[in-house]
């Protein structure tokens, strides 16, 4: 009894809670709907995939053990499943080589060897190595935007990441303060380079430096200071106000931004300390050792591996090789075979039995013609001939006499031909019924209307089913 009542109660409770979350502005409920419930769904979906995979293997193994019909294909399925699990969860195969402590006299020779191994330009590789040797490039976000130069830290300066970060902030603040000191000294009437959003903020900043004047501008308020006495303090205040680099926990927004940049900088430092990376990926350590033996005397070489998870999308890894060389060709083969079934089904669907089938045939032909390059040059005159033939097909559903139908169609074709000869078949005259225009109209109007009707029907079905589940009327998920 409890095995059925408890799951049903959970479904009803969570369903109503999620539904209420869309109508009630409560932070806790909103957080549940936007974050917790979606995470629960992901966890449940992951378990569902896991259980589905185990069930698939159980069925395939049972088929092999009992030697059922076509059991040989099950052996291939089991082997493919095991290989994918091994490549995804147990073997990365993403080894790469880094070189550090590269002496300047070895750069040219090292660049040539790496260029031959990676099929890259030797000059480009040499420039990259020389740039790496300059030191760790301070990220653009951490540089003072008014100082037009790239700044670097050598290896000894970044071995301790915390000290490196503090050094960078100190250097940035020095650059900023010196810049603002120079600006203030050169202007007796100094406009503070800050746009304040409201008058009170501008007043709070300026009141320490009387006399001050506040100007109203279209995008905010600007402060003018005359004959500033404590210029060092003003330069530091401007520096602190304009950036988030020196924020503390009292300013939560700026401090969170500072922590994010600090995290990114630490990642960059770690990557730099690994050494100059060689772009090739090796599935095995032994294959990487082949290159290490050639360049080992040019610097300190290390064989590293990409992190778990990233190896799946890394070109050269075992999983990537399996996906590109086994899964992708098999998928293409499956869809190629599926195309023949689609063609067969289309033939049966396009057979003219009634008015609706005729409409389906006509629109299908027009869309297929419009999707090929030749369809883009089919003028309105050609479409007029096709339209006349379609009219003949439609008439045939109402008139049984073939002679009458043939006469009507022939007269129509003759009239179109005469009109075309008189106007020189000018495509501009019937541009509004050319194939590209008709195709666009079919997509924009009938297709869109049909798709919306289908989506509305699906939405109503989802609403109805969801309501039945929430109120406990639908119990199929309990096996009833």
Question: What labels describe this entry?
Answer:
64% helix, 16 helices, 3-stranded antiparallel beta sheet, 480 residues, mainly alpha
Could you describe the 3D structure shown?
- There is one protein chain.
- This protein has 480 residues and is mainly alpha-helical.
- Helices cover 64% and strands 7% of the residues.
- It folds into three domains: 2-90; 136-273, no CATH class; 350-468, no CATH class.
- The protein contains 16 helices and eight strands.
- The mean pLDDT is 80.
Tell me the helix content: 55-70%
Query: Oligomeric state of the chains?
Result: single chain
**Main beta sheet:** 3 strands, antiparallel
Low-pLDDT stretches are none
Q: Number of helical runs? A: 16
Beta-strand residue percentage: 5-15%
Topology as a string of helices (H) and strands (E): HHHEHHEEHHEHEEHHEHEHHHHH
In brief, what are we looking at here?
The protein is mainly α and 480 residues long. It has helices at residues 2-21, 27-65, 71-90, 107-118, 122-133, 155-158, 161-185, 199-206, 231-242, 252-274, 285-295, 318-349, 355-370, 380-396, 402-423, 435-470, and strands at residues 95-100, 136-137, 152-153, 189-191, 212-217, 220-226, 276-277, 300-305. The longest helix has 39 residues, at 27-65.
